[in-house]
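Sharing in case it's useful to others searching the archive later.

Someone asked me privately for the predicted structure of Maleylacetate reductase, so I'm posting the question and my answer publicly. Question first, with the sequence:
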Amino acid sequence: MIQDFHYRALPIDVYFGNGESKNAKSILNEQGFSSVLVITTPEQKDSGLEMAKHLGDLVSEVYPHAVMHVPVEVADKAVEKALDKNIDCCLALGGGSTIGLAKAIALKTGIPIVAIPTTYAGSEMTTVYGLTENKLKKTGKDIKVLPKVVIYDPELSLTLPADISASSGMNAMAHAVEALYAQDKNPIISMMAVEAIKSLSQALPKIVKDPQDIEARKQATYGAWLAGICLGSVGMAIHHKLCHTLGGTFNLPHAQAHAITLAYSAHYNRNADIEAMDKLAQALGGQSHEEVGQLIYKLNQQLNIPLALKDIGLPENGPSEVARITCESPYYNPRPYNQDELEALLKLAYEGLAPN
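And my answer, the predicted structure tokens:
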């Protein structure tokens, strides 16, 4: 059983436990915040209004305008709102889109962030930010965008539909997978990555079977927290480059793109770092690095995740375009980028066929 905890490691405070979001007002008071902008997506506006009601006079306004991939024009309007309201804190209630918009505000203004994640995205534990302009998503790192406080409340994820939970959890797993073969990997982060992969691969099937299983939700939240630490501690590689292209250029849904593509990027790297990939296979219940793509593909099948990129919006010319853009401005990867091989794998992903 995963225990509740309060983890303090400067410059971030982490609170973890069922119902922990109910303590948000006292936590904000302890931090000295008095003019808070509550940020959500349009779909989560009601949750934002409920949080604002709980926080009372600490709230300046609810701002329900976060969208996927943080377009620069959306970010600019949010920065203008934050400055106009003279806020002293952004409270991001939601997933990667919401936390991403809060980060865009923090990047320009230095206004601190309190994050209350409702998905398993993991961005809340990192200095990484992303902005999309002219159909290209660019990422960077800046200590200003690291939230000052993160409040994990597994109960908030009980309303997250099973299909979104599964995709979001696989998105988190992708951070841990790439941490295993990162350029700057280290034994501590690798240990956390293995634990994250085990936790998520065990919890997600239980959530799909019973979305109200609070212990499975707690285990998945714990795995996502660990995966977020991995994402924030070491560099990512080819998988994240592929997904940033799928999202920024083709506006594919972030979590689903990560979930589908992970099997193929892991298969591409299966022989690049055999020790790391053997760890990955074993964390997923297999034995050999040769299995990693198949193991992830089969897990996606078990989770009822859409298997084909065409089913989430990738056009027919997408595989060749993604392979080209990826190879023109590559991230680090433990093996060289081969455009023809990547295009062939992406064509399999486009059709939803197993990696081979």
